[in-house]
Amino acid sequence: MSEVSARGGVDGSAYDVAVIGYGPTGVTAANLLGGMGLRVVVLERDAGIYSRARAISTDEEVIRIWQRIGLAERLKLDMLTERPLDFVDAQGRTFLSACPAPRGHGHPPQMFIYQPALEQVLRDGVDRYPNVEVLLRHECLRLRQDAHGDGDGAGAGAAAGVELTVVGADDSVRRLRARYVIAADGGSSLTRAQLNVGYEGRTYEDRWVVVDTEMLKPWPDHDRLRFRCDPARPAVDCPTPLGHHRWEFPILPGDDEKHLTSDDAIYAMVSRYGIGPDRIRILRATVYSHHVRFADRFRVGRVFLAGDAAHAMPPWIGQGMAAGVRDAANLCWKLAAVLRGELPESVLDSYEAERKPHVKEVTRRAVLVGRLITERRLPVARVRNTALRAIRPVPGLTSRLVDANWIPVASYAKGFQARPRTKASGRQIPQPWVTGPDGERVRLDDVLGGRWLLLHLGPPRPQPAWERAGVPSLAVLPAGSRPAENAVVDSDGVLLPWLAERDATTLALRPDAYVYAAARAGAQLPPPPAGFAPTARPAAVSAQ
After folding, report:
1. 357 by DSSP, 3-state: which?
2. Does 472 score more than 80 pLDDT?
3. pTM > 0.90: yes or no
4. CA dihedral defined by 206, 212, 217, 222, rounded to 10 degrees?
5. Of 103, 102, 122, 107, residue with least CA distance to 50
6. 389 sits in which H/E element
7. Strand partners, 247
8. How far apart are CA 171 and CA 405, in angstroms?
9. N or C: which end of the chain has fewer CB within 10 A?
10. What is the pLDDT of residue 5?
């Protein structure tokens, strides 16, 4: 191997953040950090996008995150939305059917995706930012952290950070420096192994054949997600956009795994549902195992684990990729605030405190839904089918049952928020359509602008501590009000009831639209966080 000296960015100084891995988590982080004006390097060992469509759906909260990077509407062009989901028995008869309930994020609650196309749009988004350098076919072999910038090759007085030893496709070796590292390098994360972080949990006995197909000729109800709860062989039958369709089948005891991935075996399995070779073309079949695992720690010094490097879950509620995107959204604005000197480094400890409980609850629900789908004991399956079919006629009960066991609302019981807690603390404010100061109808986050902000109901009460820090205010006016400067009109009637339900008239919102602090009418907000020193932001890089 030859060695090339390259300690940092294009001008020789260190990067702000190095992102290891360029899947959905890493590419979301690169977009977020790039849009914040940080100097970023991305390291990805593969030459191109992984061709296998792993994730098949996402949700409104994730689209809201991609809205922040200006790509939500483009991404939605390639998605299937507002599709119901059915749980069906061995004869194909539905015993449970529902549509996931909206959670107020301003986008459809569930959307089916074709992951390679989605990742291409996200990578194209990164190309907007000259401050983000992407190194494909580069792998990080070694990390070394130093507390005072006195590591090998670091000059006197260099900023504390991480030295990364990187090997390229031509076997050249580079040494890069970054202030922080986001390791989004998957479930077999080399970074996690180097940090000696445990990855505890279980791997399920059943392995599954995942089949991606091109749809040649549509069939009735091809655009419905069906969980085929057949004790003989459960299956997932899922629409995916851009002319694709996905099936998943377990490998049962006695099955020949190699044969089960052959075209003959796949056509035989889907023929049970009336699908013949004239309807689909098999693109690929891959065998996966389902895991439930959590890293012992999400942070080791200046290195943060995200996505599958930090946690893994079964696919039943489509939240594996979504959980990684949420990780990136939670972490990136905090890294930017620390790097700008707006917040102390201790705020970075809140990443694990906020994300780990939520991802554990999501995983618990995924396991529960998986048990419902894959039950193979015939007497138990009969009871399941009969009981759930009996509640179908009760208005709204099925939807409530599904919603209670589907994706939990992301709210933080602990983490970066003021004390004392209120009913609004640690919750993300909903995102309705509002009328902005210019009279245009826009989504709320486009007005909030990814910044610290005070949101007032009615005439604002002075908040001297926040005003001294330069935090701007925005008033919420009732529907029918005239547009006004520094105000939004709650034209859909969502924000005012949400505030009233939580007994709040003033909110201090974090850049991710989560409530840092709240106050009742006539009361003062708790003060800003310790070490809060907002600075003038660098000019944003154009995201057009």
Report:
1. helix
2. yes
3. yes
4. 50
5. 122
6. helix 378-391
7. 211, 237
8. 49
9. C
10. 36
